[in-house]
Design a protein that fits this description.
This protein is of the alpha+beta class. About 15% of the residues lie in helices and about 30% in strands. The chain is flat, with a radius of gyration of 20 Å.
């Protein structure tokens, strides 16, 4: 019987993978590199090792999200994997902090084969590659190898799994309510406002923007909220969202899965439990993200 799952559902079910080898890859080396990086980013890198990745953010001194990325170890090298569609390169953002530290940043984009399996918890059988979790997509894990193994590994994987195109990965992302920097976020957003709290270690030592993040967590609440919604009607990115007669925000991302419109929207915090509609009158229902 043929599999009737959508591409996004195949990814969630662990039956498909995405080739993300085109993502930005930046190696961080030097005798002070790991301690230097750990002092800047939101993840706790103390337990970083081959096979154990860390999803992380770089914040401004005032706590605004500048970049989101995953820190992995490839053949002993610490490498930052970042969605190339993010407006600002993590290498460019980190460069001003190098100063006199024994740290070197090297762009290695295209030098690694990276295959993301957001629905798998255990590594697929693919000799010559390292399993690294969590995935740079946000869930599951990645098969990582040096670039010369790319074509061989892709061929091996296609013998068992479906290779999903980027549009299926995008639908999976929206269904899973994983934000994209520069699309679902705006300049000035703190991690909680951008639905990125899980990339912050609140138990580690200092990192850039820590004071602002801790203040919100302990004393306040976000100004706005990135929420997961669904509708039976047509919804488009950019549609205004209202709570009653009050404009609350706008839709940032949309995917159609099994006939339903799955959306992410930035709304005012005080409207997080309100009945929401687009400017065209389409009702938006709250939903539990796939896998969540």
């Amino acid at each position: 019987m043929m599999d009737t799952l959508t591409g996004a559902e195949l990814l969630s079910a662990g039956k498909a993978f995405v080739d993300v080898s085109h993502r930005r890859s930046v190696a961080v080396s030097g005798s002070e590199s790991l301690a230097w990086l750990n002092d800047l980013v939101t993840a706790d890198l103390e337990h970083l090792r081959s096979g154990v990745a860390c999803r992380s953010l770089l914040l401004s001194p005032t706590g605004s999200v500048l970049a989101e990325f995953t820190v992995i170890v490839v053949e002993g090298a610490v490498v930052l994997i970042q969605d190339a569609r993010q407006p600002r390169s993590i290498a460019t953002l980190l460069e001003p902090y190098v100063l006199s530290s024994d740290v070197e940043l090297e762009d290695r984009t295209g030098r690694y084969a990276i295959f993301a399996f957001p629905g798998l918890s255990d590594a697929p059988d693919a000799p010559g590659a390292t399993w690294s979790a969590p995935s740079c997509l946000g869930a599951g894990g990645d098969l990582v190898a040096t670039g010369e193994h790319h074509d061989r590994l892709a061929s091996v994987l296609r013998g068992t799994y479906v290779q999903a195109p980027d549009e299926d990965a995008e639908a999976w992302r929206i269904a899973s309510a994983i934000p994209r920097i520069g699309v679902d976020t705006s300049d000035g957003d703190l991690p909680r406002e951008a639905r990125l709290d899980q990339a912050v270690s609140f138990d580690k030592g200092c990192f850039l923007g820590q004071e602002a993040v801790a203040k919100m967590r302990n004393l306040g609440h976000p100004r706005r909220w990135l929420t997961a919604l669904e509708s039976d009607g047509a919804v488009a990115a950019g549609d205004a969202v209202s709570a009653g007669d009050v404009e609350s925000g706008f839709v940032t991302s949309v995917a159609t899965v099994n006939g339903a419109s799955l959306a992410l929207a930035r709304i005012r915090w005080e409207h997080r439990d309100a009945v929401l509609r687009t400017s065209g009158g389409v009702e938006l229902r709250p939903r539990v993200p796939a896998g969540g």
